[in-house]
Amino acid sequence: MSESAPDRRSPSPPQAEAAAPQADPHPRRLLNTVDVMALVIGIVIGAGIFSAPALVAGFSHSVEAMLLAWLLGGIISVAGALCYAELATSHPNAGGDYHFLRLAYGEKLSFLFAWARLTVIPTGSIALLGFVFGDYATQIYSLGEFSSAWYAAAMVLVLTLVNLVGLRSGKWTQNLLTLLEVGGVLFIIGAGLFMTPDPQAAAAAAASPETRQATQWGLVLVFVMLTYGGWNEAAYVSAEVVGPKRNLPRALFWSLAIITLAYLLVNLAFVRVLGLQAMGASDAVAADMLRVLMGERGAQVISALIAIAALTSANATILLGSRTIYAFGRDEPMFGLLGRWNARHDGPTNALLTVGAISLGLVGLGAVTRSGFSTMVDYTAPVFWFFFTLTGISLFVLRRRFPDRPRPFSVPFYPVTPLVFIAVCLYLLYSSVMYTGVGSLVGIAVLALGAVLLCFRRSRALRG
């Protein structure tokens, strides 16, 4: 019931320090190539592949352009993952991006990144997953005009309450549901490529508005790269890879190659059954494909599977996102209330409530714009690509600042590879601001509020 802030002062007694074994300050290298591949594939393949393809198809003028976009997404991801691999092996730290940005640019920018982690990135992902859940749950039972938003709000409320009372999914549950998610991808590929569509259902699906005359590459790549997201977190374990100079690039290349192939096959399955026009007009593209192939029963089965996958990802994001915010509250006096741990329920109650409240607000924003998934991509994309760009540049800054630092892994074709990655990040930052909707403006405004708080924090420190 009562919350107690952790004691930040508590040094260990001298005798306890003497008795305790000396901790190893460096990560132990325990992961082989297959371990890293499994980690990357498990993180990257998520619920986004069941929603983003419709948006990509809707902004593509041809099947070839759509498939090229998914191929480019894989190539860009490999370039970025190699840059992160060098940063993580040269400067190993659990803080990831926060640590790299702090080393390269100082405390102010790292504070702004932490603020973005508090208000934009995990909460936007939770709301996004809520709309994936809502779109597919609506295929099973519709709640009316704002059905997806109602389902998304209910998901946020229920999962927040579940985590507040200390209940959480066990490891085996998460693994099982992740297996179901990957199984759903494989089922869609098999069904779409090898089953024969019902002619009447296929004709009805094709009777939809035509797609655009020209591919809007900026928007297309924003949605594609969202679906490839997650490899940057997987790269943090590079300091724990056995023989990183050889095994790390091999693991990153093959895992992202497998993901790219899977994404290409999924999109080929969708377009083979539905056609580009119907694919671009769909709110639940996997359900629509299975409806053509197997009728209403097939659509409901795949919808239930995808809704469970989204629910699982959202629960993990709420749990981990609240821990990130809790850590930020412990380190930042201005947000000290968020850094309190509820001993009774074994969780960061204030951080969980904050995550839930912001996520609900974002669900409301998606409902107002009537394009929930797309609005959440708009909300997170400018902030995401802004910090991705700065992290890419930090590779050059940290090489200059720490010229003698050992580099277990060096990015190949330096400086071309990081320059290409930075250029792509800048293009996607520009696209996410210029070609997206009201969601991007809200995301930028929230980040600007963090800059105002940073100025207030500095002036208060000077007065103190």
How would you sum up this structure, described in words?
This protein is mainly α. It has a single domain (29-463), classed as Amino acid/polyamine transporter I (Up-down Bundle). It has 18 helices and 2 strands. Strands 1-2 form a two-stranded antiparallel sheet. It is globular. It starts with a strand and ends with a helix.
Relevant terms:
globular; 1% strand; 74% helix; single chain; mainly alpha; two-stranded antiparallel ribbon
Break the fold down into its secondary structure elements and pairings:
Blueprint: E1 3-4, H1 14-19, H2 33-44, H3 52-58, H4 63-90, H5 97-105, H6 107-119, H7 121-140, H8 147-164, H9 171-194, H10 199-206, H11 217-228, H12 231-234, H13 244-281, H14 285-331, E2 341-342, H15 349-369, H16 372-401, H17 416-434, H18 438-463
Antiparallel strand pairs: 1-2
Helix pairs in contact: 2-13, 3-11, 3-13, 4-11, 4-13, 4-16, 4-17, 5-6, 5-16, 6-7, 6-18, 7-8, 7-14, 7-15, 7-16, 8-14, 8-15, 9-13, 9-14, 11-17, 13-14, 14-15, 15-16, 16-17, 16-18
